[in-house]
Design goal:
The protein is of the alpha+beta class. It is built from two helices and two strands.
């Protein structure tokens, strides 16, 4: 390994820059990054996005009932709270 002080300083600065960039976005959840959120309790039968919160299945489009509180669809952030029965957290898991 090269123990040149300039090399070590450059490596340290690079590590600090990467750590700083990661920390800048660490508080953001994935839903905030793309402007969407999971909305539970509003999916129609067969129209859910991905897996059930109750681990009943792992596939999109397999919800058995309308408005199941463990099935979700992705909606624009902030919309879920305005929908009847909508929640950003699953119920009864």
């Amino acid at each position: 390994m090269n123990k040149n002080p300039k090399h070590l300083m450059a490596t340290g600065l690079l590590i600090a820059a990467v750590a700083n960039a990661q920390n800048a976005f660490a508080h953001l959840e994935p839903k905030a990054r793309d402007g969407t959120e999971k909305c539970y309790g509003v999916a129609r039968a067969g129209k859910n996005d991905c897996a059930s919160a109750a681990a009943k299945h792992g596939c999109a489009g397999t919800a058995k009932h309308n408005a199941d509180p463990n099935e979700w669809v992705k909606v624009r952030q902030g919309l879920c709270a305005k929908l009847a029965g909508g929640s950003t957290e699953p119920k009864g898991t």
